[in-house]
Amino acid sequence: MIPLSDLKKAATEGLAFLKQQDDVEEAEVFVSSNGVLLTRLNYTSHIPCNGVEEPKSLVNYGVGVQAVLRSGDGETRKAGFGSEPSDISLDGVRSALDKARKGAVADPEFTTLARPTGEQRTLFDYHDPNLMEMKDADLVNTGWQVVNAGLRIFETSESLMSLDDRPEKLADLGIIVGGDVTILEERMAIASHAMPEVQTDESTLIMSFITSMVEREESKGSGYAASTTLSGFTDEAGKEAARNAIAGIGGVRAPTGDYRVVFGREAVMEILHYIIVPGLEIAAPPAGRRSEGQAGRRPEGGRVSARPAQRLPLRARRRPPLQRTAGNPPDERRRSRRHRINGSHLPARRQRSLHRPHLVHVSGQRPARRGLHRHRRRGFLRNQGRQAGRADQAEYAAHQRECAHFSERRHRRREGGQADTRLGRRRNRLRS
User: Could you give all domains of the chain from N- to C-terminal order, each with its CATH number?
Assistant: First the structure.
């Protein structure tokens, strides 16, 4: 990772550059470097495995600029944000400022960028240097610590011993321990017009998510652990997953119904992370939207509601009416209707299967009367379920009986053959 001193230097130089720009009223520069260490756990008692595999690391860094820009009239102000990944030099700051200029919008409710409150900072050096300088060997050892803890629970379990009286046969039960150990390392530096003295911060986090199984008994359990320090991280995730897998042996499925449940720690974390917290985020709407200037008001007067979409059954809608233009003879009207159905009025590249609004097929439902459906010019979509041979006139839909422009000779040529799965001719063919 990039040293904290380099991030602080980049923030200082970036702020000095922003102060030299004539159109920048005030700005804030943010420089960060983040690292991720990950090792995957995959132990299987009945399949050869490595136990701990794929130790890897990822480092990303960049600079972000949030600027308040003066407009040409001197009264309207615009606010914009831009970022540049993998570059914290002055060139990266310049590129981020250009992006902020392009994306700047006028917000009537905007007042100023964040400013210090005057309170003294009380949280310093709360990260763990051991996690920040984690070695590769230490990362692998941490993974084995979690795997071995889960295996010890399986080996000493009386419930598993009752399934197989010989300990050497426990491997035949299909013991599985999988998951990962992840370490997050974060460094940042920030400065602005209102806060010219650069502020820095470092944070660390180590997490483990484990899933264990007794495959022969179709039992599974999970566990997780998290800590901000290496000394506070334990092998409890592996133990918890193994205990839950053993406790699930011999379980039965509860019948469908309403039950009172108590969520565990992991379930509560998942609900907060994926459902509740994303719903609390507030994004600034683009300029010109109806929601502009409506902060604090109830949306749509409380009349907003949602309901599942309805799917109509087959032939629930009416067919489109024929075009009856005054002065056109019946043959012209029929040709006009056929012109719309077969798609011959479209360009050659667009003459494909057409959407028929009067035929809405529900999933899993066969066409009416197991017959033929007109789908494109000189093409049938034939139902493979019907018997080979000539079809009765009643098996055709009403609008298909009206299509008399297909020659009898062409129709007879297809009699007696197997079910035809072609759709159209030449390159527009669909085969099963």
Answer: 4-113+126-249 (3.30.2290.10), 330-412 (no CATH)
